[in-house]
Specification:
Elements lengths: L1 E6 L5 H12 L5 E5 L15 E4 L6 H12 L3 E3 L2 H6 L2 H10 L7 E4 L22 H8 L3 E5 L9 E3 L2 H8 L7 E5 L5 E8 L3 E6 L18 H18 L3 E9 L2 E6 L9 H4 L1 H21 L11 H7 L3
Parallel strand pairs: 1-2, 1-3, 3-4
Antiparallel strand pairs: 5-8, 6-7, 6-8, 9-10, 9-11, 11-12
Helix pairs in contact: 1-9
Length: 314
Amino acid sequence: MKKIGILFGQERSFPNALVERINAKNVKGIQAEPATIDKVIQAAPADYAVLIDRISQDVPFYRAALKNAAISGTAVINNPFWWSADEKFFNNALAEKIGVPVPKTVLLPSKEQPDDTTAESFSNLAFPLDWEGIFSYVGFPAFMKPYAGGGWKNVYKLDSADDFFRAYSETGQLVMMLQEAIDFESYFRCYCIGGKYVRIMHYEPRNPHHLRYAAQHNVSAEMMKTLEEYVLRLNQALGYDFNTVELAIRDGIPYAIDFCNPAPDADLNSVGKDNFEWVVETMATYAIERAQAHKDGKDNLTWGSFIRNAAAGQ
């Protein structure tokens, strides 16, 4: 029996529906359940061919347990090693390298020194930074946000250098990035599962949360195809099995705004019935595919083309 476990926290609608859908398909030798962890012994295999991770970003114990399971052959969705290493600023740099437009973005050191460091720890950092060059490159208006993380935490909309310095003074030890604001005509949020299944959802981030998926943008079939291509290109390079990509269209160019969401919102009450049905059905299909392809004791993780090409010396 190949078991598929779903590891989750407070969310209920998606994990429960996913377990039910997988089991309802009655695929011989496949069974899904909420994952149970009663002990984690080094290098000991887990009881699951596949584990779908919805919570380890908030629970470090789970992230370590998933890495331990992966090293003994469990296919973890998403790859916990890559998820631990990934962050938004790197993603933007990678997007540029693979030909996906992104806003102009600059990395910023933390305003306050990290614990257990002194001024001497920053001997290689110019002081002051080239603020004029940074502001000239990014322009205003701009957004300042953490270089890693999500949920719109610690995000600032800035209209001037004065706004920037006021906001920057509040960021403490957070490493931030300053990013060009894209004044968009239309906006889309896109699920990507398995690096091959894409659902493009009309989205309006300026609406109240419960109305964001109620948008309807008038774009061409050719543009929709470009959006799908960019979503696939990004996820295949990053190696995410389950992710969302947000794209904003300005002057006919789709910019990837946010594409590091490896535990994306899939709650029925926020994404709506049709999107919920798609993500449950598609993830059920993909999880079964991964369970059927599982090989005991082998590396069953997904590694993106960036890592694969580096390992191959390309």
